[in-house]
């Protein structure tokens, strides 16, 4: 069964460093998403991406964040200068459609720890 | 303000027992309501998706109900198993067309004990 994959599973970094989180969405999907979940808190939407551009972003997704689809398979989230409060689980998701029931399939997540 | 509230916050039951988790929402315009299961340290996995016109939907031992008038949903788990231990998250999709967003609840943490 096709699934969304994410690497690395755990990333530890120093405050101020840049990190890139990688995702491989399901191959025939067209819509891609990043979410984050701070420990003990709700899942929060960061950004959605379609047709090689951002379709929507939340207020969390400030200038420190960027997304890219560098080739036909990978979808990346870059944090330019990490802060302690960026420590969270980051989930990538993909869906085949935006309309209708828009079922999103989630990856296993990357746990980011900023020291 | 769009929001999703779930109860109870946590629940402990014995293996084989049934349980019901609750979700109340104030979301407009409503598109659909989803229940996800999230194992510790893993991504959410969809259990059910219900539109406005559906008032019950089953997926194996999971049965979700939706009352669009009272803006309430429940997830009933029958004959619980140890593997049902997880967080169950109610998520409501708001908006229309390509302008939809998911409003997430905090989840109910379920522990099934032998």
Note down, in words, how this protein is organized.
The complex is a heterodimer of chains A (115) and B (114). By secondary structure, chain A is an all-beta fold. Chain A has no helices and eleven strands. Chain A has strands at residues 5-7, 10-13, 19-24, 31-37, 43-50, 53-57, 65-68, 75-79, 88-95, 105-106, 110-114. Chain A is globular and about 35 Å long. Chain A starts with a strand and ends with a strand. Chain B has 114 residues and is mainly β. In chain B, 0% of the residues lie in helices and 64% in strands. Chain B has no helices and eleven strands. Chain B has strands spanning 3-7, 10-14, 19-26, 30-38, 45-51, 56-59, 62-67, 72-77, 86-96, 99-104, 108-113. In chain B, the strands form two sheets. In chain B, strands 2, 4, 5, 9, 10 and 11 form a six-stranded mixed β-sheet that branches. Chain B has a five-stranded antiparallel β-sheet with strand order 1-3-8-7-6, with no helix packed on it. Chain B is globular and about 45 Å long. The mean pLDDT of chain B is 92.
């Amino acid at each position: 069964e096709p699934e969304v994959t994410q690497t690395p599973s755990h990333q530890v970094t120093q405050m101020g460093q840049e990190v890139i989180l990688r995702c491989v969405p399901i191959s025939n999907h067209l819509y891609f998403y990043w979410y984050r979940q701070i420990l003990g808190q709700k899942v929060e939407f960061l950004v959605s991406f379609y047709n090689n551009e951002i379709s929507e972003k939340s207020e969390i997704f400030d200038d420190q964040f960027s997304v890219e689809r560098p080739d036909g398979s990978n979808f990346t989230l870059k944090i330019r200068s990490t802060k302690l409060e960026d420590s969270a689980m980051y989930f990538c998701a993909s869906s085949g459609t935006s309309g209708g029931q828009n079922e999103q399939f989630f990856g296993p997540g990357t746990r980011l720890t900023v020291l | 303000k769009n929001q999703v509230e779930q109860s109870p916050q946590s629940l402990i039951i014995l293996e084989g027992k049934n349980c019901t988790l609750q979700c109340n929402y104030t979301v407009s315009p409503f598109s659909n309501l989803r229940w996800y299961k999230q194992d510790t340290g893993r991504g959410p996995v969809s259990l059910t998706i219900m539109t406005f016109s559906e008032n019950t939907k089953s997926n194996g031992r999971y049965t979700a109900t939706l009352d669009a008038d009272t803006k309430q949903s429940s997830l009933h788990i029958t004959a619980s198993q140890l593997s049902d231990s997880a967080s169950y998250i109610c998520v409501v999709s708001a908006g229309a067309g390509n302008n939809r967003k998911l409003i997430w609840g905090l989840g109910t943490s379920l522990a099934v004990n032998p």
